[in-house]
């Protein structure tokens, strides 16, 4: 069984870190063993499995998981809008709100900000992408967006993939100001988006259940904003109002329990990603950064 660790670069600590994976044993068994792969096909990838697990996380007795989770993953309760003992179940804690002061939004008018806390990879030019988690391995854009004409329009565009671990703040936000359209749901299975799974099948990102929103902006054109479901994330919950203007950093929605991802796709020659993001992405190393911090500048 392959037990290669997952490493990322922490923007704030300025060092390479090893990821502490929630549920690592089950995840590696599922994707790295024959028995696990059989269980994956028969059970884990299906929506009913995630609904069942989500139901468990909605039970009042799941509150008992909150305090150990905060302790084990070194979360800061001072950032929370609600205190840890106020959550009615684990899922309420999982999609908790944070105080605005915990995630200030970069105020440079030229900046575009990360939409979520997480580990990020960028692709400056999709037509020249050499791979995300493994060199030479990239998902199919037409499959991802579910529209061949839209895929052709963004074939030379830029992309940001943000991977949220179960330990992360699980609300997602708009990367720039604009007017968002409705979210179009694209059905699919619910496979893990952890690198353990993606190293074996990058197409998971393009085929999982996902939602696509077109954000109309003044300086970036139309930005494709996507949320990708994953194992135990059957619910992608939108909290914004389609057709109403949003500011940079405004909340768009949240994921219920589990790891998940967001994807931003920009028109060609619209954005210049920050140097540290470009540098580590070129080496298939994710950059950890928080929502509201700069990911790049308007070109």
Automatic annotation (TrEMBL):
**EC number(s) from the headed UniProt entry:** 4.1.1.65
The UniProt entry, under InterPro entries, shows: PS_Dcarbxylase
Q: Its GO biological process terms?
A: phospholipid biosynthetic process
Q: Per its UniProt entry, what is the enzyme's top EC class, as one word? A: lyase
Pfam families per record: PS_Dcarbxylase (PF02666)
Q: Which UniProt keywords apply?
A: Decarboxylase, Lyase, Pyruvate, Zymogen
Q: Which domain of life is it from?
A: Bacteria
Q: Which GO terms describe its molecular function?
A: phosphatidylserine decarboxylase activity
> What is the protein's name according to its record?
Phosphatidylserine decarboxylase proenzyme
Gene it is expressed from: psd
